[in-house]
Amino acid sequence: MASSDGAATLRRSAFARAFFAEKMYIEAIVLEGFKSYSNRVYVGPLHPQFNAVTGLNGTGKSNILDSICFVLGITNHALVRATKLDDLVYKQGQAGVTKATVTLKFRNDPHQQNNPLPFPYREMPEITITRQIVIGGRDRYLLNSRNAQLKEVRDFFHCCQMNINSPHFMIQQGKITKVINMKPKEVLGLIEEVSGTRMYELKRGNAVKLMQKKEQKLQEISVVLREEIEPTIERLRKEKQEYFNFVSMKEEMQRFQRFDVAYRFYSAKQLLQQGTSDFDELTQKKAEIEAQIAECDRETAAAQKQLEDREKLDGPLQRVRQKKEEVEKLLAKRHSEEKTARRDLKLFSDALEDLKKEEQKLAKKLAEKRASRLSETSHAEAAEEEVKRVKEALENAEKKLEGLSTGGAEAGGGASLREKLKQAKTKAAQLEAEEEDLKTELKHVDEELRQVRAKLNKSGESAAQMTTQRDAAAARVAALEKQLAAEAVDEEKLASLREEMKLCRREIDAAKHEAQESQHELNSWSKIAVRLPRGMHPHKLHGQVFELVELKNDYLDFAKALQLLVGGKLEYVVVEDKDASKAIFKENNFASSRRRVTLLPIQDCQVGKICDTATLFQNRRLVGLSQDDPRVLRCLDVIDFDANRHEKVALYTFGGSLICATAEMAEKITYQPNKRQAFPTVTVEGDVFQTGGVMAGGGSGHVKETLLLWKNFKRCSQMSQELEERARQIDFYLQPMEQTVQRRTRVTRELRLAQNELHNIEQLMATSSAGSEMARAQQLEERRRDCTKRKEEVEAEKGKVLAEVQQLEADVYELEHNRDKLEASLKKEVKVLRQRLKSLEASVNTLQKEIGSFRQELMTLEKDLQSVQEDIEKRTQGLADLQKAIEEKSKLKAKVEDVRKEIELCLSEAAQSDKKLGELTGKLKKLQKNKDHLLLTLKKHQHLMNDREKNIGAARQEMEALQRANDWLHAEERKFNQPGSAYDFRQLRPETARQRLQALQVEVQRLQKSVNSAAATLLEKTEKDLLALVERKTQVENDKAKIEAVISELDIKKRQSLETTWLQVNENFTGIFEQLLPNAQAKLAQVNPRDLMDGLEMRIAFNKRWKESLAELSGGQRSLLALSLILALLKVKPAPVYILDEVDAALDLSHTQNIGSMIKTQFPTSQFIIVSLKEGMFSHADVLFR
């Protein structure tokens, strides 16, 4: 841009420079890449007061003002006519310019008084502020060429009254329109903003909010006092009184506790003294009984020695008895084996008989099929020969007919009959020549063969021997191959049987292992090993209870319930009668066993109350069930047993108890009023209810389910036996096949050896001279056979060719002399032959299908017959083996009978020895009975001693425990049971004291849960809190009063400030408007003359005549009025720079000139930068930029 006389007019004077030197103003603007300015543009120097910018539309006038706003840090991009920062770069960076830079140079007076700039800028004569943006988002500020933050730049401009986000110093045409349309309250708001009371309104609002919070706090404090503090104080006072009562009661309880402890200590001491005396007496009696038992043992030992001496004399008898037992065991084992062998023999015999019958049927059927096949095959072969002959005749006839129809030539362009005749003669000549060659070759071969045989005759014996060895080896190989083919085996069936046997063995091992585990668990806690006395019959011992009953499969879940209900009864050992019980008890010495053993004599046991079916129905009705509802069952209904032998055992163990589905049912049945129908019950979960009132429940994971284990043991044992039987059946079929496989393996090995031997002989013959001659002779003989065979073939073919020559010669003759007759005859022959061929082919197809079916059936029958014959052979061998085993077992049986006779003879001789043994045995029984009585007496005394010892120990422990817990016992012991003392047990009965103590303990325990031991402390603290809250309430009320007083005082000052500012603005408004529009007056008038706060309105008068409304004004007059008000507001708090953007757009030339003169006179200390298109505006400017 240019300035002064050419492009701008610069009017400066020494007075102006001296006058404006005391303020800060923009000296120059530098633009580069900003909006329409692609290159660097320097706008300046600017005048300190009036600067104008003009030019045509689109030349970038307003862009200069936008650049100033840009540097000031504007955030509202719409004010600079952009949507984003990138729009401010020249052509948005599309023309190679990627950044926009604007620099403002400010001139400052360091000596100015009250300089608003911050330190150190107030002392700088020149200040430069630069803003630069780059495409992509980078934005930075430079303050005096130093990087600065946006906040620092804004604070700098705020000090100069240049807030770009509230730009009163920038006036645009839109702002003028906005001001002219303002309502009275809005105009008053402009006055408030200028006067600074807007900030007061903000602070006043904050004070009102604070006062409201204070009021709310007062209400909260009142509520806390009324609803929390005062009730809490009242409650704590009550709890304090209760606590004092509790302490008094606790002290009384401690006194009774000391009395009770003293009585317990005194009683324990008395019990200790009495128990010690009784224990000494029992110890003396025990010593006497032990002496009697020792005497009895000496007598028993003497009798036992006599018995042993007697038994030594009977040593041979004992050995005979032992031999008898061994023989009987062996006999039982052999009997079982013989039984198994006879069963297997019967199976073999039956199977062999069935196989022989099957063999006969298959052989008969096979013979019939073979006979039928021979007949069908002969018919089929004859039919096929006939078809072949007819085909040849038809082919010859067709060829003749085709040759005849084509004039003696073959169909398809073949040779004529004469040419064929010529070819046949040529072929006959060739065959005759080949025949002569073969005759010559045969002659040479015979001569060479004669010479080789002559050489072989010379070698003689060695060649013959080698030939003999080779023939023998070849015969051996052929015999073994035949034997291997005879030892055929069904590999698929063998593999299947092996796999089945393997699986069966695995299942047997698994079943035995599971049975052993069950048996081991039973032995560890339930099974009792019982040894029968000598001479007692085994039927006297029945076994344990759990072995005599079995849990039904439908009730396996009840095993734990039955275990909990009957408990140890399942382990009772059941014997026949009392005598057997005594003998077994003594024989096994159960009296000294660490484990408790109970023997139940089945004939003498007493069965208690039994729940019959009618009682079961009544109990089901009692709990609301139908008669057949299974939720209530008798224990007898869930087990199986031998009704003939063990019914009494089952009734004794399970007859008087029930199983219920729920605990409610069980409890209702057990504890019903009708005692005759009440029975012990148990639930499936294991809750037990006894008629005596005992109930048991809770965790039952440790319970051992004996019945379930025994059932599992029996199941696994039975399963293993069944599987072993199945294994024997599989082995019955598998063993012959395994033997065949073994024989086949052996034959295969022998065949391999024989083949190796034959190969070695042949190799030896090939490497020796005689062998070479023999090989040459063999080759010549083969060559002679080949030549002979070929000679015979050539002779036969030559005969056919000669016959063909004769036939062709006859055909040529017929063709030349009887053509038509021959053609008709050939056509008829072809037709007949075709019909004949079709009929024969259909017959052959039918016969071939039948032959194929016959062949398949024949192969199947032959295979089945071979398999049956092999099975018969194997079964026959197995049958012989079984028969042999049975014969051996029969011989052993006879031997056992001889031993048994010998044993019976020895037993009769020893009968007399048994009488003496009986006497000694009777004496021993009597001594043992006496000893048992003494042992029982000793046991009773020992129980009494144990009881006394326990009582003494308990008394001593109680005394020691009481002494450890109560240190005062030693000092107060002399007062115990003394009249008049605090421990007078006769004056205050201990039972009464204990009852009072229990009552006090209950009451103290009850109060201890609710009493507040900290009530006194809490009451004191709460009262202090009450005083603090009252003080806080008083303080809040005082603060509220102070805030209200300050607000009232500030409201008065606000009104005074508003009135002062209004009068100042009104004065400026009137003066500016009169200068802009001569002969017109303007003012800011109150809407309500009595209250300024109702708002202000602009009034206008022409020649002292005031208008009622602004609507009567023209657009230019309205713009002047609004502009006057804006400038009047700005004049109150002037900024260093003002920016006007075409504010004269709606004004005529005279008004525009008035604005320029007004600026010069009204704002002498401010810098104006104005964009205008009218000469009346910029004619007053100090500097004009075009």
What does this structure look like?
- Strands 2-1-4-5-6-7 form a 6-stranded antiparallel β-sheet. Strands 8-22-23-3-24 form a 5-stranded parallel β-sheet.
- With 1186 residues, the protein is α/β, with parallel strands linked by helices.
- The chain is built from 26 helices and 24 strands.
- Helix 6 runs antiparallel to helix 22 and helix 10 runs antiparallel to helix 17.
- Strand 11, helix 13 and strand 12 form a beta-alpha-beta unit.
- 66% of the residues lie in helices and 9% in strands.
- The N terminus is likely disordered.
- Among the domains are: 217 residues, P-loop containing nucleotide triphosphate hydrolases (Rossmann fold); 306 residues, no CATH class; 177 residues, Alpha-Beta Plaits (2-Layer Sandwich).
How would you sum up this structure in a few lines?
Residues 405-415 have a biased composition (Gly residues). The protein is an alpha/beta fold and 1186 residues long.
Category by helix and strand content: alpha/beta
Shape: flat
**Unreliably modeled segments:** 1-22, 408-415
Query: Distance N terminus to C terminus?
Result: 6 Å
Question: Whole-number average pLDDT?
Answer: 76
Query: Strand count, sense and closure of the main sheet?
Result: 6 strands, antiparallel
Q: Tally the helices: what do you get?
A: 26
Tally the beta strands.
Answer: 24
Report the β-strand fraction as a percent range.
5-15%
Radius of gyration: 70 Å
Task: Determine the fraction of residues in helical runs and give it as a percent range.
Answer: 55-70%
Please give the order of strands in the largest beta sheet.
2-1-4-5-6-7
